[in-house]
Design brief:
CATH class of the largest domain: Mainly Beta
CATH architecture of the largest domain: Sandwich
Oligomer: single chain
Structural class: mainly beta
Number of strands: 24
CATH superfamily of the largest domain: Galactose-binding domain-like
Length: 350
């Protein structure tokens, strides 16, 4: 019995150590949710309190849904959509167009509208625990896919906004906000914000894919003492070079020597990286960087028939000790217009 107890204690210690050393905390699971049908959450500062319950918002829901048969909830599973959570107006089948098809709708909407529908903006909220190993380090909160504009709050403080269906919504928390212990994430998601109009088959309802929610990975990632961020790559096929622009993030300002090694390889080959440039700077002189990198010859261009991709490895060292490592995928191609035609790498394609 003593051996079993000792083994269990050792296992728990190992699990605790692993959790502290891990650089990612997944945030899938149950989140509080509240529909903000009359856009009052920001004015009433819902981000500074526990989100109101469906009981608290009952009158608003009745007015908004116009006494339709609707479903609401105080919790939903993320990643997920409102339809999956059965939140919204219930839509009933009337008569099948053909055997097995039960999507004939009594309203004037197309037959492919989901079983429950709502286009209301909404708030989500949950408590997260920062492990001791992450104490006072910069952290990035990321939601892989959502429609509209997201506004994120951390412990009631505004962090920022993000938009775009095609890219993850990321929010950087500086090290002054990330003490070890419990914290509250609150996010307002508004797909009706027209500042960044989003259209396409994956967004609008005409192709059967209208939805609101948060899908894909939802997680927090701890950053290293110093790290590269916002790396952008611009290919130059005529010279066989790429222009790389990037910023730095850091958890503490220390006067130390910083070395950045850039290496590249063809991604499909999976072979060794070839170093193409080394950049040395002082920590106190950190600022946005822009530099040209020459690729090994011969340079292979990207086309739809030969989709060759390269992988750029960026390694940051402080006093010769590795601090950060990142990988970026890119293709060498030039898309342009000429005499009213589209060209790819100088050849007319349309």
């Amino acid at each position: 019995m003593k051996t079993i107890i000792i083994s269990a204690i050792c296992l728990l210690q190992l699990m605790s150590a692993f959790a502290q050393e891990s650089k990612t905390i997944p945030l899938d699971g149950s989140w509080r949710v509240a529909l903000d049908v009359f856009y009052q959450g920001t004015k009433k500062q819902w981000y500074k309190m526990e989100l109101p319950s469906s009981r608290d918002l009952h009158v608003d829901y009745v007015l908004y849904f116009r006494r339709s048969d609707y479903l609401v909830a105080d919790w939903m599973h993320l990643p997920g959509t409102m339809e999956e959570a059965n939140i919204g107006v219930k839509v009933y089948p009337e008569k099948a167009f053909s055997e097995g098809l039960q999507k004939k709708i009594t309203c004037d909407a197309p037959f492919w509208i989901p079983r429950t529908v709502t286009d209301a903006p909404f708030w989500i909220q949950r408590t997260v625990t920062i492990p001791p190993g992450w104490n006072d380090k910069a952290i990035v909160f990321s939601m892989e896919r959502t429609i509209g504009i997201c506004t994120m709050y951390w412990d009631g403080q505004l962090v920022g906004e993000a938009s775009g269906y095609e890219v993850p919504h990321k929010f950087e928390l500086n090290n002054s906000l990330t003490s070890a212990g419990d914290h509250i994430i609150t996010v307002f998601v508004n797909r009706n914000d027209k500042r960044y109009k989003q259209v396409g088959h994956g967004v609008v309802g005409e192709n059967g894919t209208e939805w609101i929610g948060v899908v894909g990975k939802i997680e927090m990632q701890v950053q290293n003492s110093i790290y590269v961020k916002n790396l952008q790559i611009y290919p130059n096929i005529e010279n066989g070079t790429i222009k790389a622009t990037f910023d730095f993030g850091q958890n503490s300002k220390q006067n130390k020597d910083i070395t950045i090694n850039f290496s590249v390889r063809k991604k499909k080959s999976g072979g060794k990286f070839e170093k193409i440039k080394t950049l040395k700077i002082q920590n106190e002189n950190i600022k946005q960087q822009s530099l040209d990198l020459v690729l090994p010859k011969p340079v292979e261009l990207w086309t739809e028939f030969n989709p060759c991709l390269y992988e750029l490895k960026t390694e940051v060292l402080m006093n010769d000790l590795s601090e950060d490592e990142s990988f970026t995928t890119f293709g060498m191609r030039k898309f342009a217009t000429e005499n009213g035609n589209f060209t790819l790498n100088g050849k007319k394609i349309f």
